């Protein structure tokens, strides 16, 4: 019985993600909340945190940042209690994104640096590169080009190392943009 309920919750969660990717937020929420209810009945803590984080993502995609933050903080608490470092790193990053969207640069940096620390501890190089890019973006928006370039170059190096072509392209673009904004067209052209 629990095995089939577990699978049902998993399938509902996956369907919710598909609806999210289609921007069908109402259906995505419906599926994730059904999956959450089942996982709460089963007492499956990591699955609960996963559903709650997905609900936060759905609200974030709709620019409902207060509700997104509420759900991300709930997920964060469960991931911390369970010691799920991967979930913790992802959720800390997501909270940073919320604060960045709300132009609260100090809070965004706080959460991005927390995420970076977790991702370094578990050696999740792709997420480390993403954290570097996010941190660079905040410094760039604050007008601190030197720090922005430092973090963007860290992301570029790591993306090259792990063969992340998409991340590599993003890194080149962000570095080029900083140089362009500084009217340093010679360096901008290199990137």
Topology at a glance:
Elements: H1 2-21, H2 25-42, H3 45-61, H4 65-82, H5 85-101, H6 105-121, H7 125-141, H8 145-162, H9 165-181, H10 185-190
Outline the structure in words.
The chain has 191 residues and is an all-alpha fold. Helix content is 86%, strand content 0%. The longest helix is centred in the first third of the chain and has 20 residues. The model has no long low-confidence stretch (mean pLDDT 93).
Q: In terms of structural class, how would the helical and strand content be classed?
A: mainly alpha
End-to-end Cα distance, whole Å, is: 56 Å
Q: What value does the Rg take, in angstroms? A: 18 Å
User: What portion of residues is helical?
Assistant: over 70%
Q: How are helices and strands ordered from N to C?
A: HHHHHHHHHH
Number of helices: 10
Quick one: how many beta strands?
Answer: 0
Strand content: under 5%
